[in-house]
Amino acid sequence: MTESAVAVTTKQDWMSDQEVRWCPGCGDYGIMHAVQQVMPEIGTNPENTVFISGIGCSSRFPYYMNTYGMHSIHGRAPAIATGVAVTRPDLDVWVITGDGDALSIGGNHLIHALRRNVNLKILLFNNQIYGLTKGQYSPTSEEGKITKSTPFGSLDHPFNPLSLVLGAEASFVARTHDLDRKHMMETFKAAHEHKGASFVEIFQNCNVFNDGAFEDITSRKVRDESMIELRHGQPMRFGADLHRGVTMGKDGQLRLVNVADVGEDAILVHDETRADPGLAMALARLTHGDHGVTPYGVFRAVDRPDYGTMLNAQLAHVSDTKGPGDLAALLRSNGTWTVN
Amino acid sequence: MTDTVKRPTDPQTISRVVVRFAGDSGDGMQLTGDRFTSVSAALGNDLMTFPDYPAEIRAPAGTVNGVSSFQVHISDHDITTPGDSPGVLVVMNAAALKADLHRLEPHGLIIANADNFEERDLEKAGYTSNPLSDGTLDGYRLVEVPMTSLTRAAAEPLGVKARDAERSKNFFALGMISWLYTRPIETTLEWIDRRFKDLVRDSNRAAFLAGYNYAETTELFEHPYQVNPAVMPAGEYTNISGNVALAWGLVAAGQLAKLPVFLGSYPITPASDILHELSKHKNFGVRTLQAEDEIAAIGMALGAAFAGNLGITTTSGPGVALKSETLSLGVSLELPLLLVDIQRGGPSTGLPTKTEAADLNIAMYGRHGEAPLPIVAAKSPAHCFEAAIEAARIALKYRTPVILLSDGYIANGAEPWKLPDIDSLPDISVPFQTELNHELPDGSKDFWPYLRDPDTLARPWAIPGTPQLMHRVGGIEKQDGTGNISYDPDNHEKMVHLRADKIARIAAEFAPTEVQGDPDADVCVLGWGSTWAAIDAAVQKVERAGEKVAWVHLMHLNPLPNDLGEILKRYRRVLVPELNMGQLCRIVRANYLIDATSISKVQGLPFSVSEIEQAILGALHD
């Protein structure tokens, strides 16, 4: 990054003058406010920040940020953002996407951006429905879901976004939800601090087409008993008085237990820097399918060289060894002859 | 020349020759032809090559499907085509003879590797009897040489295993042809030393010298031939293929625009060589990224353009289809973007290694919505350099995606290129927007990303990192000026027209259209792209025969030159030769209401000179 000093900005500096046009009550508002509120804490400049989105309700997001931005094509934001990030390492590049945009039409670009570890912060708003097209099932919708395009129930097996991106060897993987502004801000900040591709899944409520999709996990009533907050270096405990925890059995399976039954030492301690993504994968799939106890927080944050840095280092190295480009010499590089 | 053996006779001077090397895909015919070409170029001959190879990397050995050929036309005068029919055909096996004999001119010379005309070779090639002895070749001059066994005999004493030694037989053939056309041996030997190592080098050297000496001492040929240097304009020349010229043109465009170049590309025949070439030149600030697919490749290029690079993507027909949606976004965002389409036979996978020019329609119309964009077409291998710079210039000046059309024929073909004076190349740089550009009623200023230049209608290019100019662009229709989202009906109509006007205005800066041949003729040939070579030769032949014909060759296919309609209307007949079903012909008929005639060829091959010549003569006398 080239910012020589930490920029001093306020939330207002990050808000554009455009009218926000999401449905009243949409979870996107909470996410937008969290982003706008965390940006001053991150300490970068609006002029050095780029938001790139695909198509879908969430992809309207860049219009509402007073930064550089592009509302692009369905599914293609990670590819377009790659072109920005690898040529301009001085910029802070964010990708805003949804479950249909990132995991259905744009699945290929997502996994390859993560595989290459392009310096992007990818925020996936997962509402388990197609909202902009008015209510078809998405690649994260549960099996059997009744929607306009599946009146007798969806036959599709859903993606678990986190296990997909862990499979693509994403170097930073986190999950948060739209009802917890503080946790969102903390997670976005951690995503920003990570060098390379950061992937954050945000449980987001679509109150028009899929209202309450995450209610059994994220609502205040059940949250403590249904969500495991992952903290680096901390035991994986949850519930009232942290009486519940996660252990691994001899068979390699993760199990939810009462801490009193197994003792504190038996509870797994979270290590987000673990090179092997196996445990992060197991945590991501703790409750695949039917909702149940769900971990959130930073699953994985490992150091791996980012693509742009490597590409630019290669350019510098070739220039050092071959000398700066000389067009006249290039045109003569295959041998010449002279006609008098 | 270092040889001291007396020649059977002195060389006979001829003005031109077309040699075709044909063999199995694994026989190294492309390498052999390329080497012969390089030596001839260095001797100062004018030349044009035509590599012709199968799509399969290695089709079944010895079959007609696996034949790979390389045709080269060398001359002591200005030529533009690789020759309609070779005068010399070198065949390394029976299948090569079967595949290419029909191309040979009457009384032409066949040099056949007699070792590969055994019963099994004939069977695989589909011959029921041996064409070398059954009268098939009556009417040609046949020289049979057991090249495989002679090569083995030359290389085995060096410790080369028999099977490995046989692989040098293409150098035996090259040696023979080098003697026959008095090419110097030293440069090829030096090249072999650079290119190969150890026993492979020794084997190739031995085979090359053996072939040369064999031709000289056996009196198979009456005498060698000499093709004198062509009279070409003074200057420094290099031998260049279209794809390399295009890649260098892109490097030059970056330098001339003072912008870093970004190429997003996905491998596809016959465009991949541009990706390969550009990947070598990182010291020019050229970044290349082999993307996960065609869509990502253009997406990355568009992102790079948004960030202030010269964004480029290279592909062929199927890739153009996949990139269509992003081109439309580029039209809407009004950002500079260059798509290079090396056309090949289609539709679908079609004929991936064969040429065609049938992507003009998709370049013109292959987008959703009203999405016009400029189209530039290269006409010859060397011209790809200039065409690449021109396409980049238009993209940058008008902030628009541009499609540059080349095709497999000029991409892989090579010709001598008189190196341009670097200082004479155009400055194509454009300024980035750095200041607020719009005054508010209270006198303060803000930034309107769609406030246009009144002359070019281009919008400002304000790149991320520029203070105060933060703005959002997107595929949703924008309000004229502010660039804010607008669904207003009148605004949409205005924006559709503005985008079209911007492209149409480009024609105002074109030089007056040049009419070649005889402008006072009553027949005019209208060409574009790689048909240039065959049309040029055909027009010359017609003129030498005392007839008059006019010729217009287009580099800009959209917008078309403003004077084109008036020019074409002067002629009784307008002929439009194209390697498609008449795509430009339909455009000029529609635009100018003239009764233009399509001359169509879709065989995966370029036009022969005689095909164009016959069409012209037919029109002159109908």
How would you sum up this structure, described in words?
The complex is a heterodimer of chains A (340) and B (622). Chain A is an alpha/beta fold and 340 residues long. Chain A folds into two domains: 11-231 and 271-314, Rossmann fold (3-Layer(aba) Sandwich), CATH 3.40.50; 235-269, no CATH class. Chain A has twelve helices and twelve strands. In chain A, the strands form two sheets. In chain A, strands 2-1-3-4-6-5-11-7 form an eight-stranded mixed sheet, with helices on both faces. In chain A, strands 8-9-10 form a three-stranded antiparallel sheet. In chain A, helix 3 (99-105) crosses helix 4. Chain A is globular. The relative contact order of chain A is 0.11. In chain B, helix 3 links the parallel strand 6 (109-113) and strand 7 (141-145). With 622 residues, chain B is of the alpha/beta class. Helices cover 36% and strands 20% of the residues of chain B. Classes of the chains: A alpha/beta (340), B alpha/beta (622). The interface between A and B is large, with 57 and 72 residues.
Q: What is the level-2 CATH architecture name of the largest domain in chain A?
A: 3-Layer(aba) Sandwich
**For the record, what is the CATH homologous superfamily label of the largest domain in chain A?**
Thiamin diphosphate (ThDP)-binding fold, Pyr/PP domains
Provide mean pLDDT of chain B, rounded.
95
Distance between the termini of chain A: 54 Å
The pair of chains with the biggest contact is:
A-B, 57 and 72 residues
Order of strands across the biggest sheet of chain A?
Answer: 2-1-3-4-6-5-11-7
Which radius of gyration of chain A do the C-alpha atoms yield? Answer: 22 Å
With helices defined by DSSP (H or I, 4 residues minimum), what is the helix count of chain A? 12
The CATH H-level superfamily of the largest domain in chain B is: Pyruvate-ferredoxin oxidoreductase, PFOR, domain III
Average of pLDDT of chain A: 95
Classify the oligomer: heterodimer
In total, how many beta strands of chain B? 25
Taking the alpha carbons of the first and last residues of chain B, their distance comes to: 55 Å
Domain count of chain A: the total is: 2
SSE string of chain A: HEEHEHHEHEHEHHEEEEHHEHHE
* Overall spatial form of chain B: globular
CATH fold-level topology of the largest domain in chain A: Rossmann fold
Helix content range of chain B: 25-40%
